[in-house]
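Late entry, written up from scratch paper. The run itself happened at the end of the previous shift, but nothing got recorded in the book at the time, so transcribing now.
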Amino acid sequence: MPAFEYKALTAKGQEETGILEADTSKQVRQVLREGNLTPLSVERVEKRESAGGDGKVKARRAGTIKPAELALITRQLATLISSGSPLEEALGMTAKQSERRSLRHVMSAVRSRVMEGHSFASSLTTFPSVFSSMFTSTVAAGEQSGHLDAVLDRLADYTESRQEIQQKMNSALVYPVILVIVSVAIVAGLLVFIVPKIVRVFESMNKEVPPLTQFMINASDFLSAYGLHLIIGIFGSYLLLKQLIKIPKWKFRWHKLMLKLPIIKKIVRSANTGRFARTLSILASSGVPILDAMAISSKVVENMPMRQAVDEAALKVREGTPIHKALEQSGYFPPMTVYLIASGEKSGKLDEMLERSAVQQERETDGLVTSMLSLFEPILILVMGIVVLLIVMSIMLPILNLNDLGV
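Output as recorded:
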């Protein structure tokens, strides 16, 4: 039974929106009138999401689904299905419990396609911006094996884990970013507003001032004259770089540079290896063929040279090369991950070893980021202290040398 989204007015003239299931829009209007509601519009969810009459749902109309919301609905589906609820009923319950309108649209459209006879996985593919290829391939494997509830449970764990890591990263970066902005603002304020008023007194004596004081005067003059241009230039350069790295060739070069910078390369390698290992583990344990699993897993690797290395490794595996050797040849993957994959291939427990590798790499990434931030804060405070000290010294030196200035 298709789902329809409606807008209606209550007896008090307030607008109400929601989703109802019925055979036709006329039936929905009938139900609304029986509930003392005046229907304003009734649209079938799937038709509203479709375009061009090709029967495919436009991903751009699906709205933005946050990772936390995706994790929640995945967990809800896993719980309902494992408790014995039919898939259609589980999807309907999830749609009704969703607070966000875009999420209700997605789940209702997926449910409608399932009830029309489509598989759950193929129904999910109509929203590629919401459900990744890894997600849909894993669901397809779960449907074929008859263990959809277990697969959804693992997908929920994976999605929640990624969301938790992302939240930790964002939370850890908040304080340093604020500290940098405040520090730059304080130094700029001192140089633009405070230093000129004090130092000009000594400059007006027509005597030579100390080199440090002259340097601060020059810096103050530069910021006063070109400060706005400097801000625009920095912001413009940032936007230009952002647009430039959208071009595949330049994006590849930028990502390759990230793999050469000290410390940064370890974080990039660990983060991407962790995502790859965890995704490959889920797909392999769900029954997805290893070559298909590697092709899908490469898409979660954000660093382009590492993604290319996975694709090349998949070709070598197709020719008979063991997975660990194919990945090792690129030089991008940590030795521990290669060793664990080799152990998994020998023991026949590849998915378990990949899971261990993912956990190990995620911990290493978390440790590296934490260490960097713990070092960054005192270093920034030290640099700020030195800058402020130089500004104070540039003001105090002429005062201490008043006799030399002829006063």
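The radius of gyration is 30 Å.
(Scratch paper discarded after transcription.)
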